[in-house]
Prior knowledge:
Elements: H1 8-24, H2 31-46, H3 53-63, H4 69-76, H5 81-89, E1 98-99, E2 104-105
Antiparallel strand pairs: 1-2
Amino acid sequence: MAYAGDNHSERMALHQAVAERAEQEGIELTPEHWDAIDFVMDVYESCPECRHAREMSKMLDDEFREQGGRKYLYQLFPSGPVRQISNLVQLKQLENEIDQGFGTSY
């Protein structure tokens, strides 16, 4: 399921589905979570060349730098912000989402 940016009702339905999946994973979504989720959905829709986990991670870090960047995002999404958001939204897996060489999960 990917975000179809132009339709408000589709976005609301997607938000409901994300909230249900988050609840199943034991995650209580706050407005801070939604800011990061919406950012990833918007980038995924508007930037086809940004489908690499490392690039998405850098963009998230830049976007949320004032709040603490990567450290802040991992507090919200301990399993890895890019990976966990992608799973919640059910985005197609990003390239190198899990770097087996380093054991890194974006």
